[in-house]
Amino acid sequence: MTNSTLVKLPNGLTVHLKEIHTAPIISHWAWYRVGSRDDPPGLTGISHWVEHMQFKGSLNFPSGMLDKSISREGGYWNAYTHLDWTTFFETLPAEKIDLGLRLEADRMSNSLFKEEEVESERTVILSEREGSENEPLFRLGESVQKAAFDLHPYRNEVIGSVEDLRAIQRADLYHHYRAHYHPANALIAVAGDFDTAALLKRLEELYGGIPAGPAVIHPAQAEPPLQAERRVEVKGPGKTTFIQIAYRAPAAASADFFAFTVLDSLLTGPTSLNMFGGGGTSNKTSRLYRALVEKELAIGVGGGAQATIDPFLYEITITVRAGQSMDAILKTVDTEIGQLQQAQVHPDEIARAIKQARAIFAYGSENITNQAFWLGYAEMFSSYQWFTEYMLRLEVVTPADLQRIAAAYLLPERRVVGVYIPTGEETPEG
Amino acid sequence: MRRLPEVSWKTLPGPQDITRSVLPNGIILLTRSNFNSPSVVIHGYLPSGSIFDPREKLGLAYFTSVALMRGTHDHNFQQIYDRLESAGASLGFGASVHNTSFGGRALAEDLPLLLGTLSEALRAPSFPPEQIERLRAQLLTGIALRDQDTADRASLRFDELLFPNHPYGLPEDGFTETVQAIRREDILEHHQRVFGPHNMVLVVVGAISASQVYDFVSQALGDWQNPSQPAMPELPPVTPLGAPVREHMVLPGKSQADLVMGGFGPKRSSPDYLAASLGNNILGQFGMMGRIGDVVREQAGLAYYASTSLNAWINTGSWEVSAGVNPANLQRAIDLILAEIRRFITEPVSLEELQDSQANYIGRLPLSMESNNGVAAALLNIERFQLGLDYYQQFPAMVSAITPEAVLQAAQRYLFPERMLAISAGPELME
After folding, report:
1. Min distance A270 CA to chain B CA atoms (Å)
2. What is the mean pLDDT of residues A8-26?
């Protein structure tokens, strides 16, 4: 792994650079420590909406010009809002990267948030949400997430509730933007075909003059685990039943996260944290696939945890085979988890999970965009060291660790069980 | 005049670093090495797609493709996947109208495992009866979910109307009753008769030399023969659309309607393909989804997505607009889209718009080939459509040669707003 350069500018902006000279490409990312975790009550979805508004024009890049400028250079760009963070990136031919740098520096503090753009974006986001509502698994996931936390904003979908999306006003959005889009709350990550000293100088020119701004407050507090199992039901169209079981998972920075990652690999197959080029392997030899799908209780099963600041969820999603009962499925899941709690696994199983992780890392290192992603991503919930030491920390996980983790986290009283019950209505033809 | 971006030629695949060879049994092998990451991908296809499916057993080619890895003469299902998954590797099959396709990836050290598994699956599948029934249940669930998916429903109906009595108008994964009708014997027969090395294409990209790949592939697949392998059936001709069709399919309980509009597009080898493709970029892709995205999403705020796609195949193609909209806004979105299309076939695009899209096409080439998967897709494209090994190096000159008049002519040849299909699926529409 080549070395990276991590510096902090006087205004608090963290800059993380990594030269990679395999292709004439540079990927530039602007990360902000703001996500749905920071959405105030009554304003759910506001962090995501602010991200949308960042595409609607800033002082030097009017609306409609941003996307065209990037596309014209053959670049691609996008933005994502998640639980803990919001990120914007541009990947461009190396000689064109200055456009991305100027654009992100401008919209760090100069976005316009015009009233008419706010209104037009309101319907776009409501439409984005309606598209998701068409999916049974979105509706089930939203209910499970809500039941899994009493107070923590992780209970809300990133996109926000319809009620709040109708209520949010321009002043709310602009205030949220000004409160979170500061150098000290941001990180610039760049990977690719550049000279570190020259690029650092250019970043200082562009970003160095942006005032530090007030300290950002993140009010969310980790919530204690559930004390009793909760169940939710969602009814909707279709003929297929889905079950989602959500356990409270460890925070990414917790030492338990790595053993939990191995546990996930054994139970439901390895989860890739790469944003690009990352999909790893199938999960047909995972314990739950064998117990549920091979035994014809389910059509499919998947699961995974995410790397987050506060403990979030380990979610197991099961597509139920027609005619099979939820009780039989839950009993099987409990039996499989019980085995992990009662007896230690063979070290070979851990070695296997480690090789899977190594392969996923290799796939993720194929492209520069994904390498730039990691420069910033791990800093959002822990530190870059978390990423560079990831494999080492997996390698020290022991069978005893796995047993302890299974016993501590995968308890029935700490979970939410959600079921999507299809109403099975026949669909009339148009 | 705006200068077009210069591309670093050394990074684009071309005759200098693509190795194309044909094995004695007819397998076409394309390789390109990339030692920047210790991984390798394989992609490819065989001419054994749903075009061979009897109508009453539609889904047979697809069913066969997903059953290939459910057990072989030497390994059972769990053994096959245990070897792959223990290595963090993957391999999967699917089917389209023309082809059975496959794709996989592994650490470079595990390429022999990947190719060995590919060979076993293609040549010696055992199709265990209990696995066939388990798969059938999974396929039927997939169809039930598809029937509830607004985008899938609109798209299936669109294809059915555009290509009546034609394999392109039918879903490769079949219908509930046709999947129920498929017997294990049908799968065995389809596999024995249609699967073979002749005209199979295999692309390998990653941290391995071309000569090593050739040796590994020869070892795994070099002695495969199937003398009975049939020629590709002729496709029936397509009939031009006579009148506009507007249909809405009601899926109760949904929030959003998905819309698909359009008609025929050029086939991939058509001389106006590239002009149509650049036109498509201007109409519904460039920046935030081109002119249509600008009008429907950015200005009217009617949709989260509204974009166009040009799908060009061997014999024909389609040119489609798709959008996800609130049912109350559906007609307004359709009207806005039609107005944009009318403008698009009436006036030439501006030189500035065309240059923007040309610059985008040329500039994005190196980015699209950042990963092994991107390069593999490009190599498959070269072989499938016989574009020539130097295609990506000639591409900038071909793109730059397109004029606004050529785009207009292509648009006028394929886009007919007065007899276009407009199919939607979603909640009931209020009058």
Report:
1. 9
2. 94
- Alpha-carbon distance B3 to nearest alpha carbon in chain A (angstroms): 11
Question: A183 and A45 share a domain?
Answer: yes
Q: CA-to-CA distance for A179 and A186, rounded, in angstroms? A: 12
Domain that holds residue A285: 230-422
Q: Mean pLDDT across the stretch A335-340?
A: 98
Report whether pLDDT(A397) > 70.
Answer: yes
Q: What is the ipTM of this complex?
A: 0.89
Question: What whole-number percentage of chain A has pLDDT above 70?
Answer: 97
Q: Is the pLDDT of residue B30 over 80?
A: yes
pLDDT at B9 over 60: no
On the question of pLDDT at B3 being above 50, the answer is no
Q: Do B11 and A24 touch (CB under 8 A)?
A: yes
The answer on pLDDT for A430 being more than 70 is no
**B150 with A280: Cβ contact below 8 A:** no
Class of domain B245-426 (CATH, top level):
alpha beta
* CA B39 from centre of chain: 24
Quickly count: other Cβ atoms within 10 Å of residue B13's Cβ: 24
Q: Where are the domains of chain B?
A: 14-221, 245-426
Mean pLDDT, rounded, for B147-156: 97
Which runs of E-coded beta strand occur in B6-131? 19-22, 28-33, 39-46, 90-95, 100-107
**Chain A residues closer than 8 Å to B370 by CB:** 23, 25, 91, 366-369
Q: Which residues of A touch B288 (CB under 8 A)?
A: 55, 64, 67
Do A234 and A139 lie in one domain? The reply is no
pLDDT above 50 (res A428): no
Q: How many domains does chain A contain in total? A: 2
B38: contact with A, CB 8 A cutoff: yes
CATH class, domain B14-221, is alpha beta
What residues in B contact A427, CB-CB < 8 Å?
A: 147-148, 249-252
If 0-12 CB within 10 Å is exposed, 13-18 middle and 19+ buried, where does residue A257 land? buried
Same fold for the pair B14-221 and B245-426: yes
Q: Of the segments A275-284, A362-371, B265-274, B301-310, which one has the largest average pLDDT value?
A: B265-274
How confident is the model at residue A277, as a pLDDT?
67
- The answer to whether the Cβ–Cβ distance between B254 and A133 falls below 8 Å is yes
Taking the CA atoms of B75, B81, B86 and B92 in sequence, report the sign of the dihedral they define: positive
pLDDT band at A67 (very low <50, low <70, confident <90, very high): confident
Indicate yes or no: CB of A285 within 8 angstroms of CB of B85.
yes
Q: Is residue B381 within a helix (H) or strand (E), and if so which, with residue range?
A: helix B372-384
Evaluate whether residue A318 is within a structural domain: yes
User: What single-letter amino acid sits at A209?
Assistant: G
State residue B1's pLDDT score: 38
In this structure, are A197 and A129 located in the same domain?
yes
Rounded Cα distance, B52 and B192, in Å: 13
- Chain A: nearest CA to B212, how far in angstroms? 20
Of B294, B325, B363, the CB nearest to A75: B363
